[in-house]
Design goal:
- Helix content is about 25%, strand content about 25%.
- The chain is built from 15 helices and 27 strands.
- The strands form six sheets. Strands 10, 11, 13, 14, 15, 16, 17, 18, 19 and 20 form a ten-stranded mixed β-sheet that branches. The protein has a five-stranded mixed β-sheet with strand order 3-7-6-5-4, covered by helices on one side. It has a four-stranded antiparallel β-sheet with strand order 24-23-26-27, with no helix packed on it.
- Helix 1 crosses helix 6 (about 95-115).
Length: about 675
């Protein structure tokens, strides 16, 4: 559904100053371009519906008032002094490039301000906008850009993991074709804190295929001018209408605001100001029908039916909602990194309410972004606990289970309704078949051993789940408990065959995948409690070792978090007597696109000791590497994706690689 765009004023309209007319003409001509820029820069945490409206609001509010003086429309500094490339882009924009640049600056400032607003500031208003509703406003509908494919989703996740200034630099280069110098000047004028750093980080997004990233950024996934509509929750709207009618009746009866003054900043039932009453009303909680998961194309937490023997216990649900809104000091609050612990703005969805391991447990799902667990002891001392975890864009595998209880070294999971078969297995015993796991009628599993958080690493328990044939996703997959509410999905990417295209991650249930995970499972301890969504083992190279011809394997273990950024461990698997001998971690990198859709090339190296006692420098690259060179205290070169050169144990060596089709790599550390 195309959103209504501003139209030209009629010829009979009062005459306006020339500068304002030019700004209006630039807005009308470049409206879709400006709205797309605002949509990309705005924080993804707003949600797609609010981002669409905020993007249109940012552009429409950028237009100066009808009485603005002509000299108010100034050309930004970066538009007055351009590089030759930027001059060419300016000429391509036409005679209105200066007003467009001015409008773009105003839009950019507004979009960047959203990320700097205080927590208490209304989410619809940028700082320091006037306290007035942000237009446009849509009632009764939810608006979403057209969904893209896997590549568009991966780019959106990568953008969600960087600050707004980095997203702005990325968009200005790929959408507007600005050079780096022009982007730095424009970000500085828009008030960004570190324009040069933002440009550097943006250069790593979408690399090495920036042309493909540009196509993705111009796709419908990032077009807030052409949207799809969906009704907001009808039951929630009915509750709101009842609440409005009740509030009006109370106002007529009371005839005064004294009650509101006495309550001060607190709302009913101890709620914080700004939290709507329906959001804290147990009767307003959203509940999904029991069989809806088998008749929907959206297989995530929104398809979970409500379960548990206390799902109709209004007192328990009310305590959980009030604790979420304003947790007292006796409630222990935890949140995975990047997860907001703010109160619900709308009634959340109830997933579970029941008694598990001596506690009353309530699970909520908050608008597609968070899963929240409230637990209070049934008897004895101790306060309640409130845990938050991000779950945006969850799917069949990452919405397959939630931890409902942890006691000692064991945990219980609440399984998704589409899970048809549940077993447990040990990653450090790859040849041992999985053991059936008992699941109760409410979908709660029997206690499962937890992986060791520290110390020894003798076992690594995982759940092997199979999805139901009723959703045409009948396949098995592995998840493991890394200390968060949502377990982590484990996958594996094998090496491509000779001349074959690059392969995609697949489920880690085959012998080859289990063999690789048997040697790398213990490295997962470093990821505990960091909000990891999925971990993939990519076998990017195999190398014939010197002095005997045995073969070693190189793996890139990539952990993707729910908030976007990834962490990479490069691991070297030399031949070993035991199939569970730990691999050697030779590189560790945070906040990187390496080993993902946007970082498909990698080079790594390590020192290695042969059985003869001689030391070597080994290096290996991914499939596009056709030459590796070592410089420094040792020099050597090899054609192809691997290199082995004699070197002292502590020799300082710099490794570089050439890529087929051009380009170079440096070794990851």
């Amino acid at each position: 559904m195309p959103i209504h765009q501003p139209q030209h004023r009629s010829a009979a309209a009062p005459r306006q100053p020339l500068g304002v007319q030019q700004a209006e003409a630039a807005l009308v001509e470049h409206y879709p371009r400006l709205v797309r820029l605002a949509y990309v820069v705005l924080p993804p945490a707003l949600g797609r519906h609010r981002r669409v409206l905020a993007a249109h609001g940012a552009v429409q509010r950028a237009l100066p008032g009808p009485r603005s003086a002509p000299d108010r429309v100034r050309v930004p500094a970066q538009s007055r002094r351009r590089s030759p490339e930027a001059e060419g882009a300016a000429r391509a924009e036409g005679p209105e490039s200066a007003p467009y640049a001015w409008m773009r600056l105003r839009v950019l400032r507004t979009a960047l301000a959203y990320e700097r607003r205080p927590r208490w500031w209304p989410g619809q208003l940028p700082v320091p906008a006037a306290l007035r509703p942000a237009l446009p406003v849509v009632w009764g509908l939810r608006l979403f850009p057209r969904a893209g494919g896997v590549d568009e989703l991966a780019l959106d996740r990568a953008l969600s993991g960087v600050p707004g200034a980095v997203r702005a630099a990325f968009a200005l280069q790929l959408l507007d074709g600005l050079p780096e110098s022009g982007v730095r000047a424009l970000l500085a004028e828009a008030g960004a804190d570190d324009p040069a750093g933002a440009v550097r980080r943006a250069a790593r997004l979408g690399s090495p295929d920036r042309a493909a990233a540009q196509v993705l950024l111009r796709s419908g996934e990032f077009d807030p001018c052409t949207v799809q509509t969906r009704p907001s929750d009808l039951l929630r709207r009915r509750h709101r209408m009842r609440a409005v009618a009740l509030a009006a009746a109370l106002c007529v009866v009371a005839g005064t605001l004294a009650v509101a003054a006495e309550k001060g900043a607190r709302g009913p039932d101890g709620a914080e100001a700004g939290v709507s009453v329906p959001a804290l009303d147990p009767a307003a909680l959203l509940r999904t029908a029991a069989e809806q998961w088998a008749d929907t194309s959206r297989i995530d937490f929104t398809a979970w039916p409500v379960r548990g023997d206390r799902r109709d216990d209004g007192e328990l649900l009310g305590r959980a909602l009030r604790a979420w809104s304003a947790p007292p000091g006796t409630v222990r609050v935890s949140a995975t990194p990047g997860t907001a612990d703010v109160p619900p703005a709308q009634p959340p969805r109830l997933l579970f309410a029941g008694e598990v391991d001596g506690a009353a447990v309530v699970l909520f799902h908050d608008g597609g972004v968070r899963v929240v667990r409230y637990a209070e002891p049934l008897s004895g001392g101790g306060g309640a606990a409130l845990d938050f975890a991000r779950t945006d864009d969850a799917d069949v595998t990452t919405a397959a289970a939630v931890v409902v209880s942890r006691t000692g070294a064991k945990a219980r999971f609440l399984l998704a309704p589409w899970i048809s078969e549940t077993t447990t297995r040990d990653l450090l015993a790859p040849d041992t078949p999985g053991r059936p796991l008992e699941v109760g009628p409410d979908g709660i599993t029997a206690p499962v051993e937890r992986p060791a958080a520290g110390g020894g690493c003798d076992v690594w328990p995982v759940l092997q789940l199979r999805s139901s044939e009723r959703i045409v996703e009948n396949h098995a997959f592995l998840v493991t408990d890394l200390g968060d509410l949502a377990p982590t999905h484990l996958t594996y990417t094998p090496q491509p065959g000779r001349g074959a295209p690059a392969r995609q991650p697949r489920e880690a249930t085959g012998p080859e995948a289990l063999g690789a995970w048997a040697r790398t499972a213990c490295s997962l301890r470093a990821l505990s409690g960091s909000g990891v969504r999925a971990v993939n083992n990519w076998a990017f190279a195999e190398q014939k070792l010197p002095e005997g011809g045995a073969r070693a394997e190189w793996l890139c273990t990539r952990a993707d978090t729910w908030r976007g950024p990834g962490r990479v461990l490069v691991q070297f698997l030399q031949p070993a007597a035991s199939p569970t001998a730990p691999a050697a971690v030779v590189a560790d990198r945070d906040d990187t696109a390496l080993c993902s859709r946007f970082g498909q090339h990698i080079l790594a190296g390590t020192h290695w000791k042969a059985a003869s006692g001689r030391w070597y420098v080994l290096a290996a690259g991914s499939r596009a590497v056709d030459r590796i060179e070592a410089t420094g205290q040792v020099r050597g070169a090899a054609g192809g994706p691997t290199l082995a050169v004699r070197a002292p144990r502590d020799a300082s060596v710099q490794l570089t690689a050439g890529l087929r089709g051009g380009g170079t790599l440096t070794a990851v550390r």
